[in-house]
Write a structure and sequence with these properties.
- This protein is an alpha/beta fold.
- It has eight helices and five strands; from the N terminus they run αβαβαβαβαβααα.
- The strands form two sheets. It has a three-stranded parallel β-sheet with strand order 3-4-5, with helices on both faces. It has a two-stranded parallel ribbon with strand order 1-2.
- Strand 1, helix 2 and strand 2 form a beta-alpha-beta unit.
Length: 176
């Protein structure tokens, strides 16, 4: 957990939701704070206090099985980072059929744009909150089977097996 992960803006978006919609939201933030991130984690916990209906839970590092269980219970996966070269967690969430919200600063935005989620501007809290509201409503009321099928196709294209095949093709072109 550090400032580049954009968690502050996500908490502010939850605050916006607290003031503007009646639905209850539970946000689980997973990750470890190392060195300077420990002070930032204290700040984030303080920022997340005082919600009347929404709940923010901070979890430390989660193992692979714990992470899969969290994906199972989640309705939406949010990657609020200011910088993320790719964002493997986006593919993991999509593989579990979860609607994804990622920022325009993430390398995975190209995958999200192909289906299965929405992209938000990094620091625009109100926009992020409005899109979060839209995602909550859509994932609650809409039939997401078409979106999920599209996500599974996207995830399969980015599996380790497919990435290895593409890498080998490039290698063989360069070194026949």
């Amino acid at each position: 957990i550090d400032t580049m992960k954009g968690i502050k803006y996500l908490i502010e978006a939850i605050h916006y939701l607290e003031l503007n919609i009646t639905r209850k939201v539970k946000l689980i933030i997973c990750g470890e704070a190392v060195s300077s991130g420990k002070d930032y984690l204290k700040y984030l916990k303080k920022l997340s206090k005082g919600f009347k209906k929404n709940e923010i839970i901070f979890s430390n590092f989660v193992s692979g099985n714990e992470k899969l269980a969290l994906y199972d219970v989640a309705s939406i996966f949010v990657l609020p980072s200011s910088y993320e070269p790719f964002g493997l967690t986006v593919l993991e969430a999509m593989a579990k059929g979860k609607f994804v919200i990622a920022t325009s600063m993430c390398g995975s935005k190209y995958i999200v744009n192909r289906g299965g989620g929405i992209i938000v501007n990094y620091e625009k809290v109100e926009e992020r909150a409005e899109k979060l509201v839209k995602a909550i409503i859509e994932t609650t009321y809409l039939d997401l089977r078409g979106i999920r099928k599209r996500m599974i196709r996207i995830v399969k294209k980015h599996s380790w097996k497919e990435v290895a095949k593409e890498t080998l093709k490039i290698y063989h072109k360069l070194y026949p």
